[in-house]
Amino acid sequence: MNSLKTVLLASLPFLFDPVAGRTETTMPQSERAESTERRHLSATSTVGDILRHPAFSGYADRVLPWDDRSYDETMILSEIGGLLPYHSAVDTGTVLGGLNRMIEDVAAGQQVFYDIYTEADKRADPSKEDTGLFYFRGRPGAPFAIVSPGGGFAYVGSVHEGFPFAVEINRQGYNVFVLKYRVGQGGRVATQDLAAAISYVFRNSRTLDVATEGYSVWGSSAGARMAAFIGSRGVAAFGGDALPKPAAVIMAYTAHSDHSDSEPPTFAVVGSQDGIAPPASMTSRIAELKRLGTTVEYREFPSVGHGFGTGAGTSAEGWITEATRFWERSL
Questions:
Q1: Measured on CA atoms in the order 40, 42, 44, 49, is the torsion positive or negative?
Q2: Dihedral sign of CA atoms 279, 66, 309, 72 in order
Q3: Residue 202 backbone dihedrals phi, psi, to 5 degrees
Q4: Per residue in 186-206, pLDDT tens?
């Protein structure tokens, strides 16, 4: 009889706690709210579940890639790669890992999303409303990284190569921020958002509990251009504060060629089958940096195309850990 009761209760459209013997509807309201807030997403969860999840309240639209389109809220998350036309090897488990990490952090009482612009800034330029930083905490007082995902300056692919990057870098103990920047206005405007984000972290380093010395900038595709611009020209060149250059620049699959006469240590990766940023477009810049005496490491992964993210399930798997160790040697 007890087993039958458990089966029947579990089939009802509310949560059942078999240990406590309570349904969600019999829990106190405060516990029900906490249970909902903690609820993990799964491969069969939908885009609508992200948009309505209480953990993302107030910034759910910034979690997803596009600013200028409505979503099919019935799309299940195992198909979320359909929202990322410039990306490949979109791994559902990796995507869920980043999203659920944020859900856990919010449930633990931590602030996950931060505005980088003031309300006055956003009134003066409404496009800044869509910007911000997602914070993945590492060791208190550890250095920080800022990740700028790609998307051809048309969308921001944080679900694939932003939040999952942060989870991987966090495993080494570092603090990580993932930038939601303005799209549709080109690379300079997006890089201005990166400069504003770095300045924000420096100004609020005590509250955020991060070390400012030895920070790194990471970017993929369009985001790698942004990271490289900061490494070459500095934060102030894009409207930010007068701050040191990053200790390391981590670049994934971009055809960026600009450089200065003094570049930070640079780690670069690309897939051998990349038709958007072919390896030759990266190796020419790498050769120039080496000629300048820059510390450089370069990886070309076989049988991988553009936008492979963490490389989960491909020959590129594990590159985030390699890049983090490279950053460590540059501190």
A1: positive
A2: negative
A3: -60, -45
A4: 999 999 999 999 999 999 999
85 closest CA partner among 164, 153, 179, 151: 151
Q: For residues 187 and 59, what is the distance between their CA atoms, to the nearest angstrom?
A: 23
Answer yes or no: are the C-beta atoms of 192 and 225 closer than 8 Å: no
Give the closest residue to 248 by CA, choosing from 198, 296, 309.
296
* Cβ atoms of 263 and 294 closer than 8 Å: yes
Amino acid letter, residue 240: G
Q: Flag whether the pTM goes above 0.70.
A: yes
Q: How many residues does this entry show for the chain? A: 331
What separation, in Å, do the N-terminal and C-terminal C-alpha atoms of the chain show?
A: 63
How far apart CA 181 and CA 179 sit, in angstroms, is 6
**Of 175, 141, 179, nearest to 158 (Cα)?**
179
DSSP class of residue 73 equals T
Max CA separation in the chain (angstroms): 77
